[in-house]
UniProtKB/TrEMBL annotation:
Organism field: Devosia algicola
Protein name (database record): Zinc ribbon domain-containing protein
InterPro entries in the cross-refs: ChsH2_Znr, NA-bd_OB-fold
Membrane-spanning intervals of the chain: none
Tree of life domain: Bacteria
Domain ChsH2 rubredoxin-like zinc ribbon, chain residue ranges per copy: 22-51
Signal sequence extent: none
Length: 126
C-alpha cells in the first residue's frame, strides 16, 4: 500500500445560517423565531417543531444555564439551555469552576465559528 497525503482547499458557505454564523463570530446569539407559533430556536432550526419553515431572526441575550457537564482531556463541554430558546445546545465551556452553572456566549478563541460559553460576570451592586 502506498501512503499519500492529499490536501484540498475547501470552503463552506453558511447559506441560510449566515446570521447565526456571523453572530457566533461576534459572540452574539442569533436565534430563529417561528412566524406561526413563535417558538425560538438557538441553535436555529430550519423547520420549527410545528412544521413551519418560515421564521425571522432574533437576537437573544446569549445567557445560558448548564444542565449537564463533562470534563475531559480535550476540555469541558456542557448541554446548555440558552435564555429565550426552546431547544438546547452542546457548547464548549471556558473558565468554569465545578460549582458554576450559568454563563454567557463569547467570541470563540479561534477564527472558527463555535458555541463557547464563559462564566457570567457577577453584577455590580454599586
Amino acid at each position: 500500500m502506498i501512503s499519500y497525503e492529499l490536501t484540498l482547499p475547501y470552503s463552506l458557505a453558511p447559506g441560510w445560517l449566515a446570521p447565526y454564523v456571523e453572530g457566533l463570530q461576534k459572540g452574539r446569539a442569533m436565534g430563529r423565531s417561528c412566524t406561526k407559533c413563535g417558538t425560538v430556536s438557538f441553535p436555529p432550526q430550519r423547520r420549527c417543531q410545528c412544521g413551519n419553515p418560515d421564521a425571522k431572526w432574533v437576537r437573544l441575550s446569549g445567557k445560558a444555564s448548564i444542565e449537564l457537564r463533562t470534563d475531559g482531556s480535550d476540555g469541558a463541554f456542557g448541554l446548555v439551555q440558552f435564555e429565550g430558546a426552546a431547544n438546547r445546545a452542546v457548547t464548549r465551556l471556558e473558565g468554569f469552576s465545578p460549582d458554576q452553572s450559568t454563563g454567557q456566549l463569547i467570541v470563540p478563541p479561534t477564527d472558527v465559528p463555535a458555541l463557547v460559553l464563559a462564566p457570567s460576570k457577577p453584577r455590580s451592586t454599586s
